[in-house]
Write a structure and sequence with these properties.
This protein has 138 residues and is mainly α. The chain contains six helices and two strands; from the N terminus they run H-H-E-E-H-H-H-H. The chain has a two-stranded antiparallel sheet. It is elongated. The two termini are 14 Å apart.
């Protein structure tokens, strides 16, 4: 049996991970563009007593921050655990499910809620399996 199944990712695989936050960002930009073009009032969310417009720069910055934070987590798991893939999948799935509470509770109007939920879903669909594919196998 080959020992490569449990080995840490190669440097090339690890460097290739940077593509996932970038792809997630492009995906959220596409969702934002569709929402912006179709919603009469724009994409809006409640923040306390205020209503905040969700602009494209915010979407880009937040998605990149989340993507690179996720990259840090999966890299740390690879270094510290032989079960990085399983841990990554469980942790990231729980974080994703919890993240859905934000748009569900703060989106202003049905269209904004749907658009914000879609953004969360596309980020999860890119990052969770993408990073799992490169994480250390169990």
């Amino acid at each position: 049996m080959s020992n490569t199944a449990t080995a840490s990712p190669t440097r090339q695989q690890a460097r290739g991970r940077i593509v996932y936050p970038l792809v997630a960002t492009v995906a959220t930009v596409i969702v934002w563009l569709i929402a912006h073009a179709t919603l009469d009032d724009g994409l809006r969310a409640a923040s306390g007593d205020d209503v905040q417009e969700i602009g494209l720069p915010m979407v880009i910055v937040v998605t990149l921050l989340v993507g690179f934070a996720a990259l840090g987590v999966v890299t740390l798991l690879d270094r510290k655990s032989p079960k990085a893939r399983t841990l990554w999948t469980v942790i990231s799935s729980v974080v994703f499910l919890l993240s859905l509470l934000g748009p569900a509770g703060s989106g202003e109007g049905g269209g904004s809620k749907v658009a914000l939920l879609c953004m969360h879903v596309v980020v999860a669909l890119v990052l969770i399996p993408g990073f799992a594919r490169t994480a250390r196998k169990d």
